[in-house]
Amino acid sequence: MNDQINILCIEDDESDYTLVARILDKSRFNIVHKRIQSENDFRHALEQANLDLVICDHTMPGFNSLKALEILREVHQDLPFIIVSGTIGEEVAVDAMLQGADDYILKDNMKRLLSAVEREVEKFQLKKAQRQDKKRLIISELKYSFLAESIQEVFFAFDADLILTYWNQTAKSIFKIENVIGRHIREVFPSWYHNGVIDLFLEALELNISKPVAFNHKLGRMEFFKGDIFPSMDGGTVLLRMVTEEKQNAEEMMKLNTELETLLYRISHDLKGPVASVMGLLNLLQKDPDFDLKKFIYMMSTNMKRLDQTLVRLLNITKVKAGSENLARMNVFSELQEIIDALVFLEGFENIKIKLDLDKSLEIYCDPSIFSCVWQNLLENAIKYRQVGRVNQVTIQASENKTGLSFCITDTGQGIDPLVHRNIFDMFFRGNEESDGSGLGLYIVKNALNKINGTIRIDKSYSKGAKFHIYIPQFIKSKMNEDEKQLYDYRR
Known about the structure:
The strands form 5 sheets. The protein has a 5-stranded parallel beta sheet with strand order 2-1-3-6-7, sandwiched between helices. Strands 9-8-12-11-10 form a 5-stranded antiparallel beta sheet, sandwiched between helices. It is an alpha/beta fold. It is built from 16 helices and 19 strands.
């Protein structure tokens, strides 16, 4: 026989290995044997070598045959395993056989070794041949199956040992992996071993029932797959769909539904209070015509302002959610100054000193309504959450880079408790429960910036008030008309 038979010997004693080697060299098989001495070497050999049999000493420093057998059976159910020992007791030997050892040889009876090895090699070779015949049959059937290649989903097949036997074009296209046939699924997809996917393969084979599977897999970015494992007589097949966008859309829809429910509740709550107050004041005026008119007007005005603020906030949410394609070139300094001028009648503005620390010629090309919405809400927050009884400083800085403008707004107001930093951009979140704010300002800012791929983050190290860093993309040149492009390039 010319086929090479690979035998791994786990033996720490050189002289014992020499004896085993002499016996193996007498075999009618073309045996190639290799010696290792440790658990790590054994694990490495199982990953690298194409083995036909393992011969293992029972007792070695820090390692023994039962541990080696346990490791082997985790990855190879059929690979023959023979224990050679001078110390193994009958009870241990029986236990080893029950755990999957194929034979045990006492060192004072080594004449049995060669016949035991050849017997187990023949049995294993027969199993391998039968398995190869089955593989060839599966591959032959699938190879010429129009159905397999017409499937738009990922489709692959594997045998009872989880060795891949078929891999369709969609699988090649999505996973970008070639030459997978004949390789173990765990070798091709190591992450599936750690995230439990391979356990589902084994469970489907063991129970002989189809199993649904859903998992994340990194392909440049993290993608989400769903599908089914279908067991068969010789292994199984898998159908997978990449449903990352569907999952994201479902999560986004769930988030929107939650926000809508919250929004409806808050609309009812925030509108009901001022309306009830107005109705009460009107009722009071009807019953008491002599009621202080100035006081009445002041109270009515206060409640109407509350109504107006709530409606403006809700309108801003609607605009932000709708998005916009209305792009225009703007002078940053002028736009910010206009927004500031529109806030002069807000309560507390007289105690705010706003400084625009930026180049007056700085320009930006973006959506004016988004830009205005962002800065109006940020400045309103700075005014609303000022330190009462003193002049509060608000500073806006800006710098330009290759892709956009980076802003920083700093105030010396009440500041934000570090414990709530992670929640400040949530809908209706109030950092201070005593505040009469709507809890929508920073939520609107965050969503507005998301619409134009901008960002906002709070500076957690700043402790003299509040400090935010904002990034706004400069422009989308492809959306300019030709005259605008030329004018922009000329000004640059």
